[in-house]
Each structure stands twice: as structure tokens, then as C-alpha cells.
């Protein structure tokens, strides 16, 4: 099957680069290029593309306004093309909330040595988008709203300090993580998260989540104690790992080579949780393309951790969870909306035990 791609960007240079990259793929075809959303709207009607790449900031109609109308009137897979700026990252996160499947940063045209890797990244994201399920949007809960009604309550605060929740995600993961974290109570266990996201976006991602959740959400800095009611997101430039220091859990970040082509890598985080927390960890693998995290989650299970996977129906891309399930790394599978309750239910049922150093 040939994936039909429509490119919408106000930069003629970016349109040319994207066209060259996409046309070089044996399974893709550029069916049109548009300098603004008004032209794109007509080309969508004419060409019926499988995937739209959409610039974040454009003239005549803002990319977000166009995306919002598109997802309401003709939902389709959209990959945003974003600039590496603070404003660009904030707009991109909003675009993901509105229904975009994923995003890529604008290519650094002057650095030709990295164009091959960049081309592979774009192609991978378009392939994933072509297979994606376009999920209905849910409104973000305000920070004061707290967890959804009916979620299991932890038996006592001690449970939070002894247990950890370890989360990995990729395509579709920003919204899945938001859905999960906004249902966490303020006394939940410390949470470590690896989401495939480039440098420059994880800071805005953490700030956005922090404004929506009852728990505190930060970008991990490394060498910080993992506290109850806190979530630590791997920075886009580094792997995030869990380590033990006496009776405490600590974060560690390092810029070692990518694993499964990713840094941060879910496998790296899960493997460190297996080694550092063992049976005190609860693993959660969410929507994403590829297999990053599957082997690390299996190691967590072998070390005594209890693991959950998002089910196929609620995933944007059922790649990473499917791989983890296939190798026997998970204990339970559930819809995204059910996973927070399932995790809290497991924690409540198993009570608290003293950490063994």
C-alpha cells in the first residue's frame, strides 16, 4: 500500500525538503503541496491523502485553527512540523491535544550529515500516522479536579513511599500520559516517565502536565530523590534511570548512545527499574510505534514487578504494548481510561511493605 501524503508549509524550502524525503520512500507518494491551510483544504478534497504534514505557524490561518476544524469536520492523521522554540513546543503540545498524531521538528538544512537520520525519522512517523487510530479528544482536567470519581484509594501514605510507577510511551503518548497522570491522587507513588520526545519539548511538556495534575510534574534533572506525589519526565536529550541510594530512590540522567534508536529510551528506564526497584515497581507501557520498552518490561517482570499494557482499541499506535504482550512481559491489559484505576487498585490491594535495602 502506498501512503498518500499532503504537505502544508509556508516555507518553499521546507516544502521542497519534505517532498524530496517523502518521495524517496518506496511506500510513499506526495499527492500535493500547499503553502497555507486554505490551499490545503482544497487539496484534501481533491487528493484524499492518508497523512497530512502541517506546519505549526502559518499565514492566512493558524495551523492550530486549521487542525481544530479539520479534526472536527474531517478527522485524519496529521503530523505537525514544528520549530525548536519555546513557543513552537507549546503550540505543538496543544496540537497533540487537538488530535495530531505526532510531530517532527523542522530540519536543520545546513547540517547535511544528519539528513539521512532525519529522513528516516520523518518516514517512520508518517508510517505510524497512516496506521493510527484517530482518538476522540478528551478535555484536560484542571489541577483542582483531582482523580476521577470511583478510583481505588491507597491504604495509607506509606504505600506511596515504597512503591514506584514506571511509564513508557511513544506515538500518541503525550495525551495518554496526560490522561493517566490527571487521575493520580496527590499521595500516589513516585512516577518516572520515558516519552519519546526531542530536546526542547520535554520542558514544556512537564510544565503543561504540572498545571493540569494534582501531583507535581517536572523534567528530571538527575540526582534528585524520587518523592511520592511527584512525576519525573526524561529530558529529551538524555536517558532517565532509577537508582538506589540507601533507602531512597534517586533519578539519574546520562547521554549514553541511543537504545532502539531512542534517547530517552523506555528500555533503559525499565531495565533500571528492574535492577533498582524489583517488586516495588509497577510498569505501564502505553501507545507507541516500535518495540522500545518490551525487553525492559520483561526484565521488570522477572525481577518481581507487576506490569500493565494499554489495550489495542485505545492506542493511537499499538506497537510497543503489543510487543511487550507478545513476549509475556505484562500481567494485565486495559483501556487507557481504565489503567489509572487498575494501577491504583493493584497498589491498594497489595498494601505496604518496608523497603529492603
Structure write-up:
There is one protein chain. This protein has 357 residues and is α/β, with parallel strands linked by helices. The chain has two domains: 3-131, Response regulator (Rossmann fold, 3-Layer(aba) Sandwich); 145-349, Rossmann fold. Helices cover 36% and strands 21% of the residues. It is built from twelve helices and 14 strands. The protein has helices at 12-23, 37-47, 63-73, 86-98, 115-131, 157-162, 173-181, 202-212, 266-276, 294-302, 320-326, 339-349; strands spanning 3-8, 28-34, 51-55, 78-82, 102-105, 164-169, 190-195, 216-219, 230-233, 239-245, 248-254, 281-285, 306-310, 332-334. The strands form three sheets. The protein has a seven-stranded parallel β-sheet, with helices on both faces. Strands 2-1-3-4-5 form a five-stranded parallel β-sheet, sandwiched between helices. Strands 10-11 form a two-stranded antiparallel sheet. A hairpin with a 2-residue loop joins strand 10 (239-245) and strand 11. The longest helix is centred in the middle third of the chain and has 17 residues, at 115-131. The protein is elongated. The N and C termini lie far apart (54 Å). The model is unreliable at 143-149 and 352-357 (pLDDT under 50). It catalyses: [protein]-L-glutamate 5-O-methyl ester + H2O = L-glutamyl-[protein] + methanol + H(+); L-glutaminyl-[protein] + H2O = L-glutamyl-[protein] + NH4(+). Keywords: Chemotaxis, Cytoplasm, Hydrolase, Phosphoprotein. One of its GO terms (biological process) is chemotaxis. Its EC number is 3.1.1.61, 3.5.1.44. It is an enzyme of class 3 (hydrolase).
Amino acid at each position: 500500500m502506498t501512503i498518500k501524503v499532503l504537505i502544508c508549509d509556508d516555507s518553499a524550502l521546507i516544502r521542497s525538503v519534505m517532498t524530496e524525503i517523502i518521495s524517496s520512500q518506496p511506500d510513499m507518494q506526495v499527492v500535493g503541496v500547499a503553502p497555507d491551510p486554505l490551499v490545503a483544504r482544497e487539496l484534501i478534497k481533491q487528493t484524499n491523502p492518508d497523512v497530512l504534514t502541517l506546519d505549526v505557524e502559518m499565514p492566512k490561518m493558524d495551523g492550530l485553527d486549521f487542525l481544530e476544524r479539520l479534526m472536527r469536520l474531517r478527522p485524519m492523521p496529521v503530523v505537525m512540523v514544528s520549530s525548536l522554540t519555546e513557543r513552537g513546543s507549546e503550540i505543538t503540545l496543544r496540537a497533540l491535544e487537538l488530535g495530531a498524531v505526532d510531530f517532527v521538528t523542522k530540519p536543520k538544512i545546513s547540517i547535511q550529515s544528519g539528513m539521512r537520520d532525519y529522513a528516516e525519522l520523518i518516514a517512520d512517523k508518517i508510517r505510524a500516522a497512516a496506521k493510527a487510530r484517530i482518538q476522540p479528544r478528551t478535555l484536560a482536567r484542571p489541577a483542582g479536579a483531582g482523580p476521577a470519581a470511583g478510583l481505588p484509594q491507597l491504604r495509607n501514605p506509606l504505600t506511596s513511599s515504597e512503591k514506584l510507577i514506571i511509564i513508557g510511551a511513544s506515538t500518541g503518548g503525550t495525551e495518554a500520559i496526560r490522561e493517566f497522570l490527571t487521575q493520580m491522587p496527590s499521595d500516589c507513588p513516585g512516577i518516572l516517565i520515558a516519552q519519546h520526545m526531542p530536546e526542547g519539548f520535554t520542558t514544556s511538556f512537564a510544565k503543561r502536565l504540572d498545571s493540569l495534575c494534582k501531583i507535581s510534574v517536572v523534567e528530571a534533572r538527575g540526582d534528585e530523590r524520587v518523592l511520592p506525589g511527584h512525576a519525573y519526565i526524561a529530558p529529551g536529550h538524555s536517558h532517565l534511570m532509577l537508582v538506589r541510594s540507601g533507602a531512597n530512590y534517586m533519578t539519574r540522567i546520562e547521554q549514553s548512545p541511543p537504545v532502539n534508536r531512542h534517547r530517552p529510551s523506555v528500555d533503559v528506564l525499565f531495565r533500571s527499574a528492574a535492577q533498582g526497584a524489583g517488586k516495588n515497581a509497577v510498569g505501564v507501557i502505553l501507545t507507541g510505534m516500535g518495540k522500545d520498552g518490551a525487553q525492559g518490561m520483561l526484565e521488570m517482570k522477572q525481577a518481581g514487578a507487576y506490569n500493565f499494557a494499554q489495550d489495542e482499541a485505545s492506542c493511537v499506535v499499538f506497537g510497543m504494548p503489543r510487543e511487550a504482550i507478545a513476549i509475556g512481559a505484562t500481567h494485565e491489559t486495559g483501556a487507557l481510561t481504565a489503567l489509572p484505576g487498575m494501577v491504583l487498585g493493584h497498589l491498594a490491594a497489595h498494601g505496604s511493605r518496608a523497603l529492603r535495602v
